[in-house]
């Protein structure tokens, strides 16, 4: 009888330990959100040209160690690789002269999953993207402080 109760205690302890470990793993998982319609802050009374927004996004991305994977008209795809934890995430940034939007594309090692129609991911993803947004806004503000490039002189008629 002692042996049976000892085995039951061992099994119970194991099950409690597994559930605690699973709870710890899930505590760092949160609802994934896309960051849409972030206004392009400008210190000017006019919006920055789209080409300056593009430059600011790429400069900010490189500053934060994001890699540019692809560029198309008014869209940049970025990837961040965390070599310490062997995980990566890819995002798309669409932009124009008024705002930019960041959308999740895919990841490995971030526990991405769907639960009850909600996309879930490791909270680190949100931290990385928020830091990228801060860096982009900073670069856009810096670009808006620069004087506008002079227009080329029109040819004489």
Order of helices and strands: HEEHEEEEEEH
Question: Could you report the average pLDDT, rounded to the nearest whole number?
Answer: 83
Uncertain residue segments: 7-24
How many discrete structural domains?
Answer: 1
Strand content: 25-35%
Strand arrangement, major sheet: 2-6-5-4-3
Task: Estimate the global geometry from the Cα principal axes.
Answer: elongated
CATH homologous superfamily annotation: Kinase associated domain 1, KA1
Q: Total helix count?
A: 3
Tell me what the structure shows:
The protein has 157 residues and is an alpha+beta fold. It has helices at 2-26, 50-63, 123-145; strands at residues 29-31, 35-39, 67-72, 75-82, 87-95, 99-108, 113-115, 118-122. The strands form two sheets. It has a five-stranded antiparallel sheet with strand order 2-6-5-4-3, with helices on one face. It is elongated and about 50 Å long. The N and C termini lie far apart (108 Å).
Spell out the key features of this protein.
single chain; TATA-Binding Protein; 3 helices; 157 residues; 3-stranded antiparallel β-sheet; alpha+beta; 5-stranded antiparallel β-sheet
């Amino acid at each position: 009888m002692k042996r049976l109760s000892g085995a039951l205690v061992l099994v119970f302890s194991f099950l409690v330990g597994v559930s605690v470990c699973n709870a710890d793993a899930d505590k760092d998982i949160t609802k994934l959100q896309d960051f849409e319609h972030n206004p392009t802050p400008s210190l000017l009374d006019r919006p920055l040209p789209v080409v300056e927004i593009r430059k600011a996004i790429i400069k900010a991305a490189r500053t934060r160690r994001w890699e540019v994977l692809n560029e198309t008209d008014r869209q940049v795809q970025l990837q961040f690789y965390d070599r310490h934890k062997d995980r990566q995430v890819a995002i798309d940034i669409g932009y124009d002269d008024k705002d930019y939007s960041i959308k999740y594309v895919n990841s490995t090692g971030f526990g991405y999953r769907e639960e009850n129609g909600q996309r879930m991911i490791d909270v680190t993803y949100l931290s990385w993207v928020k830091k990228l947004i801060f860096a982009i806004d900073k670069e856009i503000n810096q670009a808006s402080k620069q004087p506008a490039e002079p227009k080329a002189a029109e040819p004489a008629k």
